[in-house]
Amino acid sequence: MKRGPRKRGGSNVPDGLPRDVEEHGEDLAALEEADGEEIRMGDLQQKDIAELNVIAKEMEVENFGTMRKHEVIFQILRKHADDRGVLIAEGVLEILPEGFGFLRSPYYNYLPCPEDVYVSPSQIRRFDLQTGDQIQGRIRPPKEKEKFFALLKVDAVGDEDPEIAKDKTHFDNLTPLFPDERFLLETDPDELSTRVLDIVCPIGKGSRGVIVAPPRTGKTVLMQKLANAVLINNPEAFLIILLIDERPEEVTDMRRTCIGAEVISSTFDEPPERHVQVAEMVIEKARRMVEHKKDVIILLDSITRLARAYNTVQPHSGKILSGGVDANALHKPKRFFGAARNIEEGGSLTIMATALVDTGSRMDEVIFEEFKGTGNMEVHLDRGLVDRRIFPSINIAMSGTRKEELLYHPDEFSKVALLRRALTDVPAVEAMELLLSKLRETPNNIAFLMTLDLK
Fold it and tell me: Which of 49, 92, 268, 349 has a CA-to-CA distance to 8 between 20 and 30 Å?
């Protein structure tokens, strides 16, 4: 017979985990006694090992030179607590099937790590916490026979008082609408990629967009420029760049290029289970932020590889589509992509995902066909344009946004419609060359559209 978790002190808690704060008055007493300097776990997690060693030396931590990064952080926090210092942790909650949870850190791609903070079932019930909630609060180091830091007091949930935050409306009960407010992407006059996007396929708050990309057509560079345009023009929006099954050097390049965005990754050398866990933590965090009326943008590279990971992890139903795709495997990636929406009550979730085509894989074609009609905007990258070294390699005729009249000013919309009519019969290469030459002659898109004659 399988044994359940061992009971300690009258509570059903597995070995190595802290018990509820309510059960231990000494924890609350320690909370009152800690009156020293405040230290944040997240600040330590951002630092490299050399910076941590300097802090450890100043705090007289023993044998830090032989420790790994996680161990150094652990000992710094424990030493600070012993000196009656205040420990503050913040992270994204992941609730496990057993009923308790842990605060995961974005600096470790929301994956388990030794300094994760334990959140008790009673705290989860009291504040109606869900997976994806951003929590900040006071913590204590592990006691004897415990392995994890424990959350003593919840100070904030999603930047709000926890008593207020627990009354928010659940994401699934919010009202989705067509996007009616635009993310302006135009920045520098010479940054033609974002200027073309603004004209050809505008992105609204709540857009669900697919960037259809054959290999080596510049999708990564386009996403970097898109990310930087959002960061410059829309600083109030929260940007997450999610890289699934990508090369490690591309992750580093994305972090250094898009400063200010939260870059979360699971590289190609990680198992599919990690791809899925990282993606689900990101989408749950985004859903919780939208419940707090925030504007969130997720740039996903790529939805194809995420669907491949789900296809590997999902229990097989026995019904296999062409290409080896299980009939039930695409439900969860569709749920991820379908979360993008403009919310009537306030807030929005925008998802721009790349879809790989012309890879030679039948599975990739099946995945693309499944997602083809689910978005409300599409950007098609063209191999013919890349062969001519024309960037951005956007096929104007095949790219566009549904209900784009809600995003444009009426005068702007009539000018864009005129431009599209003029380019209808022009081949893709000549159309993009013509558009780029005209954009280079004008300082901004408004000036360019004003040069178009409606007659």
Answer: 92
Is beta strand 86-95 parallel, antiparallel or unpaired with respect to 134-140? antiparallel
> DSSP assignment of 173-188, as one string?
GSPEE---SEE----S
Between 25 and 279, the more confident residue is 279
DSSP 365-428: HHHHHHHTTT-SEEEEB-HHHHHTT-SS-B-TTT-EETTGGGTS-HHHHHHHHHHHHHHTTS-H
* Amino acid type, 92: V
Residue 133 structure tokens = 């909630």
* Cα(317)–Cα(320) distance, integer angstroms: 8
Listed as own residue / partner, the contacts of 124-130 with beta carbons closer than 8 Å and 24 or more positions apart are: 124/93, 124/95, 124/99, 124/100, 127/154, 127/157, 127/162, 127/163, 127/165, 127/166, 128/166, 129/93, 129/95, 129/101, 129/157, 129/166, 130/93, 130/95, 130/284, 130/288
Out of 1.20.58.760, 3.10.25.10, 3.40.190.150, 3.40.50.300, the CATH code matching 176-451 is 3.40.50.300
Structural domain spans, the chain = 21-166, 176-451
- Residue 265 contacts residue 320 (beta carbons within 8 Å): no
Phi, psi of 237 (to 5 degrees): -80, 150
Confidence at 454, pLDDT banded by 50, 70, 90:
low
Q: In this predicted model, which residue has the larger pLDDT, 317 or 311? A: 311
CA nearest to 278, candidates 242, 330, 332: 242
Task: Name the DSSP letter for residue 23.
Answer: G
Q: Is the pLDDT of residue 378 over 80?
A: yes
What are the tens digits of pLDDT across the range 289-299? Answer: 999 999 999 99
Is residue 102 a contact partner of residue 55, using CB atoms and an 8 Å limit?
Answer: no
pTM, entire model: 0.90
Residues 390-447 pLDDT 10s: 989 999 999 999 999 999 999 999 999 999 999 888 999 999 999 999 999 999 999 9
What angle in degrees, to the nearest 10, is found between the helix axes of 272-291 and 331-338? 30
